[in-house]
Structure formats: structure tokens, C-alpha cells
């Protein structure tokens, strides 16, 4: 059995999560496993950190753009933006209920 296949650069969990996200968010979500396949085919998957991989899986096309444009730093910036939006939405919800 060939142990140096294209999918060996990512763990089984990464592939399962990418396929699950792809199926749950059809048709745009299919870009996630396609992105990993292209990265594995080119041999670039070995250089990706866990943060970059899970950013792509959990944020989809935004994650792909962030990782491709900024690498690890781009992934950190995207998570910072998402955290700020989450906090603002929580504060907005609190303010809305305070007005009622």
C-alpha cells in the first residue's frame, strides 16, 4: 500500500471535517475539501499550521481567503474580526433587550 498518498498531508479528522462542512454548506462549502485537495496535491499542505487548517474548515471561503492572503497572521486577523463581531452582536442584543 502506498503510504505517500496525497491525503497523507492532513489528518483523517481534517478530511472528515472538511467533507462534512462541504456537504452541510452545499454548493459553496465544497470549496473547503477542494482547497485541501489542491494544497495536498501541490505539497503545500505540510507547511500549514493547525490554526490555518481549522480556520479554513470553520470559516469556509473567508478562511480560504484569509489563509491564502496572510497565512497564519491572516488566520489570526480573521479570528480577531469574528470575535469582535461576536462581542458587538452580544452587546447589541443586550442593548436591544434593555430598551424593551
Automatic annotation (TrEMBL):
Q: Kindly state which keywords UniProt assigns to this record, in alphabetical order.
A: Membrane, Transmembrane, Transmembrane helix
Q: Does the keyword Transmembrane helix apply?
A: yes
Membrane spanning segments where? 12-38, 50-71, 77-99
State the name under which the record lists this protein.
Answer: Uncharacterized protein
Q: Lineage, please?
A: Archaea, Methanobacteriati, Methanobacteriota, Stenosarchaea group, Halobacteria
Amino acid at each position: 500500500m502506498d503510504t505517500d498518498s496525497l491525503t497523507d498531508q492532513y489528518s483523517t479528522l481534517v478530511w472528515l471535517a472538511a467533507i462534512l462542512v462541504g456537504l452541510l454548506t452545499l454548493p459553496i462549502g465544497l470549496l473547503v475539501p477542494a482547497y485541501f485537495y489542491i494544497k495536498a496535491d501541490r505539497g503545500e499542505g505540510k507547511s500549514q499550521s493547525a490554526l490555518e487548517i481549522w480556520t479554513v474548515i470553520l470559516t469556509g471561503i473567508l478562511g480560504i481567503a484569509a489563509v491564502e492572503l496572510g497565512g497564519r497572521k491572516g488566520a489570526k486577523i480573521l479570528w480577531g474580526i469574528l470575535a469582535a463581531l461576536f462581542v458587538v452582536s452580544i452587546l447589541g442584543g443586550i442593548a436591544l433587550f434593555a430598551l424593551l
